[in-house]
Amino acid sequence: MRLEYKDDIYKLISKNKLELKSNIGKANKLIIYEVYNKSEFMDKQFRNPAYYTTEEASKFLNTDPLYVSSDEVEDGF
Question: Can you tell me the distance from the alpha carbon of 64 to that of 75, in angstroms, rounded to the nearest whole number?
């Protein structure tokens, strides 16, 4: 897991879509979440490494991923 700037997300998605077309990159998975409050999120994430996977509502994180890579390339982004 790593935090990225909003401007870099589109580059990551493009790179991931290219990787999914290769034999080596087919196993790669990219999941993008929106973080509302970075410092509070990191505090929660530090205490519970699985915090970002929680399904309950959070003030610091959109628990529904903005993007999830799959074997089929999506046209949403």
Answer: 18
Mean pLDDT by 10 residues, the chain (77 residues): 86 91 86 91 91 83 87 48
Structure tokens at 36: 């509302």
The token pair that represents 19 in the structure block: 């990787």
Residues in the chain: 77
Residue linked to tokens 């979440």? 33
CB 65 within 8 A of CB 31: yes
Instruction: Name residue 52's amino acid.
Output: Y
